[in-house]
Amino acid sequence: MKLYRVKVNGKLYEVELEAVSETSGTISPKEVTSSQTTNNGDGEPFLAPIGGKVLDVKVTVGSSIKKGDVLCVIEAMKLENEVTALVDGTIKQVRVNKGDTVANKDPLFIIG
Length: 112
Description:
This protein is mainly beta. It has a single domain, classed as CATH 2.40.50.100. It is about 0% helix and about 50% strand. It is built from no helices and 11 strands. A 5-stranded mixed sheet has the order 3-8-7-5-10, with no helix packed on it. Strand 7 and strand 8 form a beta hairpin. It is elongated, with a radius of gyration of 19 Å. The N and C termini lie far apart (about 50 Å).
């Protein structure tokens, strides 16, 4: 545990904080079955693993991606979460823009 001093409304307090987990802000969504999405034959939909605000889109149509590449950044509960690719492929469609709000399982990209 670490001891910190915090000032609240001019009054000084000492608090002890314990790190509970050492998780990173990277999210990899679960694989999606074809029954969960509609597919027009041009690739597989990539669904949002978490709802929130899109802070950045790192890929464009035609981008070649590898498993683990960061596709976009979504802010959820004041945390910036890097959303990473599950498979190698090419971005066929980008369905979100910077500043958009997305819900869990909204389609973000089509990957072929």
